[in-house]
Specification:
The complex is a heterodimer. By secondary structure, chain A is of the alpha+beta class. Helix content of chain A is 31%, strand content 9%. Chain B is 67% helix and 1% strand. Classes of the chains: A alpha+beta, B mainly alpha.
């Protein structure tokens, strides 16, 4: 597309109209801010950050946390797909191993021994949530993660579960299996 | 105790006393200008914020003063303590020297930018008399030549910074700045010639006294003033002529590789240049420390301390008006394209300044 260039007349070529227009616009904004206290922040969201926290939209990709199911069970089964898919290698899972002694309930022998996310490495891409077959990790709405040291920014399983809360999905993938096993008398 | 001090003062002799007072004036001026620099940065941030519908710096609070009921929060909101935080920050930041720079030039460039900016202030009469002391550090009879000589040194700092950084963006910034500053130096120098044709003297103090008698020179040489103020914008690398820095094209231009106090020196140099340019405009076109009413147009007598202080106050007030104009323009006009800049300098202002000289000369010749 060719933009038609308007031929400037002498008055416009003097550059003065541009300056006058500039003074008009800037003075208007200056006066409005100084005397009426109208700023973009106050107009649009009613305040500024530390006092007025930003409310994120649905679907926002914040910090990834582990979730529990409505019965309070850890959903993660240490499949390590998220660890594998994680582009910046922020996730580190320690699987239960052959002993499987850390289960806190029946039929949960695959529960991870330790699950760490380094929030300094995480790029909030959401691949872990996408890849998780158990729907046990979700990118939630936290966007302001702070700490005083690097080690403080590595969140462990306990912290991730506490922050993640409960996921109210109606699907209980392993509940039926557990009941079947119980009925057959082979449940651990 | 006091008599001992007076004896010591008398014992210094005229030369010693002159040296002592010069030292006092230099220290006072340096302190005052550094404060102005710090607070012009704050003014710049606040004004830009207001123009852009933001609030600007309003968080830095001092422990005790911040908790005084109404005044404390008001000052905090105004950002009065921000310059303190900025200063401390630039001292505490890591002074990083990249491995690929040319070290000697890299170190000396900020100083070469900063020092000329301050040297210009030496000849500027910022008041009439305070007691028996003339309120100018160096009362040179060639004040304006000194000013132009020193101002043109400022470009070396920027060019050296661009060369010493040994990377492409600072290099481009340095090249641009040398071309720009040399171009506008010429129009600026030619623009003030009518002023000296009218006054007939090069001493800045004499120019002020002439204006006190005959009226401000802005009314005699308005075209000179327009060329001078636009060239001053170009000389101080301020928008709309900030091509050496131009953040959107050259990262940060000549100071891309600089950090910490070295960067701060460039920064302070820029603002000191603005102060010097404002002071020059006040002296040359707006009557310096005089006001045409209330008997404020005559130099203060030794006993008239109040009038002496009033003169300094008038000068500072006039200068601050120009500082605000400098700052305001930055947030109002977009940057010129490089060819537009050169076009304006060489093909508009240079002929205009020459014609201006000619007209002034002819008018003066006809009137004499």
């Amino acid at each position: 597309m060719i933009v038609e260039r308007k031929k400037l007349n002498f008055w416009e070529r003097l550059y003065l109209p541009a300056i006058l227009g500039g003074i008009k616009v800037t003075a208007r904004h200056f006066g409005r801010t100084l005397f009426k206290g109208k700023t973009a922040g106050k107009e649009l969201s009613g305040g500024y950050y530390p006092e007025k926290k930003w409310t994120v939209a649905e679907g926002y990709r914040g910090a990834p946390y582990l979730v529990r199911d409505p019965e309070g069970n850890t959903k993660c089964v240490s499949c390590q797909l998220c660890e594998f898919v994680c582009p910046p290698k922020a996730i580190k899972i320690t699987p239960p191993g052959p002993v499987m002694s850390n289960a806190d309930r029946p039929n949960a022998e695959k529960m991870p021994k330790e699950f760490e996310i380094n929030m300094l490495r995480c790029i909030f891409c959401g691949f872990c949530q996408e890849v998780c077959p158990e729907e046990s990790i979700f990118l939630q709405k936290d966007y302001s993660l702070n700490g005083l040291s690097r080690s403080e920014m590595i969140y462990n399983k306990e912290k991730l579960l506490a922050l993640g809360g409960v996921n109210n999905s109606p699907i209980f993938k392993w509940k039926q299996k557990a009941e079947e096993a119980k009925a057959q008398g082979i449940a651990p | 105790m006091i008599s001992a001090l007076t004896n010591l003062y008398d014992g210094l002799g005229p030369v010693g006393q002159f040296a002592l007072w010069s030292f006092v004036k230099i220290a006072a001026l340096f302190g005052a200008v550094m404060t102005f620099v710090a607070y012009s940065v704050l003014a710049e941030r606040k004004i830009s914020a207001f123009i852009q519908d933001r609030v600007g710096p309003n968080r830095v609070a001092l422990p005790l003063i911040g908790s005084i009921p109404i005044i404390g929060p008001f000052l905090t909101n105004l950002g009065v303590w921000q310059p303190l935080a900025d200063g401390v920050k630039s001292f505490l930041k890591e002074d990083f020297t990249p491995s690929y720079v040319r070290k000697a030039y890299f170190w000396i460039a900020p100083a070469i930018t900063f020092i000329p900016a301050f040297l210009v202030l030496a000849v500027i009469p910022f008041g009439s008399f305070l007691g028996e002391q003339k309120m100018v550090i160096a009362d040179l009879n060639v004040g304006i030549l000194f000013t132009f000589g020193i101002i043109s040194l400022g470009v070396y700092g920027i060019v050296l910074a661009g060369y010493a950084s040994n990377s492409k963006y600072p290099f481009l910034g340095g090249i641009r700045s040398s071309a720009q500053m040399i171009s506008y130096e010429i129009s600026m120098g030619l623009a003030v010639i009518p002023v000296f044709l009218i006054v007939g003297k090069l001493n800045l103090g004499e120019i002020i006294l002439h204006q006190a008698q005959h009226g401000w020179l802005i009314f005699y040489a308005p075209i000179s003033f327009v060329i001078f103020i636009v060239s001053a914008f170009a000389e101080t690398n301020r928008l709309p002529f900030d091509l050496p820095e131009s953040e959107t094209e050259l990262v940060a231009g000549y100071n891309t590789e600089y950090s910490s106090m070295k960067f701060a020196l460039f920064f302070m140099g820029e603002y000191t240049n603005m102060i010097a340019a404002s002071a020059m405009m006040v002296v040359l076109f707006f009557g310096g420390w005089t006001l045409p009413f209330g008997g404020l147009d005559q130099p203060a007598q030794p006993a008239e301390w109040l009038r002496g202080l009033a003169h300094i106050g008038i000068f500072v007030a006039k200068m601050l008006v120009f500082m605000v104009i400098f700052i305001w323009i930055r947030w109002m006009l977009p940057r010129f394209r490089y060819d537009q800049l050169m076009d304006l300098g060489w093909r508009r202002f240079l002929p205009l300044a020459l014609i201006n000289i000619l007209i002034t000369a002819v008018v003066l010749w006809l009137r004499s």
